[in-house]
Specification:
The chain has a 5-stranded parallel sheet, with helices on both faces. A 5-stranded mixed sheet has the order 6-7-10-8-9. α3 runs parallel beside α4 (99-110). It is globular, with a radius of gyration of 21 Å. The protein has 9 helices and 10 strands. α2 links the parallel β2 (31-35) and β3. The protein is of the alpha/beta class.
Length: 262
């Protein structure tokens, strides 16, 4: 048999957001690997595929996460090369903040294997719903927090901003006991330069279990480092408005302030 690879997302909320397409891929696979954050989804995967293997066992305290991701790719590709129909199950959307999924698919395709990804509900999708955000209304800027600082991203304060992985800002390693968050003052400084110290921000943590509640913590740029919430995604609303360009409106035939939002 010719090996193949499909990477599926199990969603953010345990068991309730797995699509029928993803379920079929898991059930029909010969080899299944998974990396999920809740025991209920793990238990369900193993009930369907008793020989399923956890990729989380590859994490080592203090080991750079990139090293772990390469090990994940190596393990997945070895199964594909053996001729197996491989399915990798990852929480949320498997293409959002998951380096190993893209790397594995790219490597498999480069070697001539069929490989594709099935989407899932991500933290960002949940954030849109829980905070009432329409990304098409004012646009959206989104960055990994470390990338945001390292690359000195140019921020438009008329467009909302989402920052990921704030907890592990500046730390490339995996930490069993959590991250020190000692670099948060640098993030506060960068945000204050754009929005000011008193601008309101939201620290967001989607509900993982059906009986759990979403956590939305309001803070300001100045008080960000004081929060004790862990594993959050940060949403920064726009701090200014941008008026339409009169010349662009004239050329588009929108004279007189014709609305364009839908």
């Amino acid at each position: 048999m010719r090996g193949s690879l499909v990477v599926v997302g199990t969603g953010i909320r345990a068991l309730t957001q797995i699509t029928r397409e993803a379920r079929a891929a898991i059930e029909n696979a010969a080899r299944v690997f998974y990396g999920v954050g809740d025991p209920f989804t793990e238990q369900w995967i193993r009930s369907v595929q008793p020989e399923a293997e956890s990729l989380d066992t590859l994490y080592r305290d203090g080991q750079p996460r990139r090293v772990t991701y390469r090990q994940m790719v190596d393990r997945i590709l070895a199964a594909v090369r053996s001729g197996a129909r491989v399915c990798v199950c990852l929480e949320g959307h498997p293409g959002v903040l998951v380096h190993a999924s893209h790397a594995a698919i790219g490597a498999a395709r480069a070697e001539g294997f069929e490989a594709h990804m099935l989407p899932g509900v991500s933290t960002l999708d949940s954030l849109f719903s829980d905070l009432g955000v329409d990304p098409a209304e004012r646009g959206l800027q989104t960055f990994d927090a470390t990338d945001f600082l390292l690359c000195e991203r140019r921020i438009d304060n008329t467009t909302p901003l989402v920052l990921w992985q704030v907890d592990c800002l500046g730390d490339p390693a995996f930490r069993t006991d959590g991250y020190s968050r000692g670099h948060l003052p640098l993030l506060v400084e960068a945000l204050a330069n754009v929005y000011g110290q008193d601008h309101e921000i939201y620290l967001y943590q989607a509900a993982v279990l059906p009986v759990a509640k979403t956590i939305i913590e309001r803070a300001t740029v100045a008080t960000l480092a004081e929060s004790t919430l862990r594993g959050f995604t940060m949403y920064v609303p726009a701090s200014a408005d941008r008026a339409p360009d009169p010349e662009a409106m004239r050329r588009l035939g929108m004279v007189g302030g014709t609305p364009w939002q839908t």
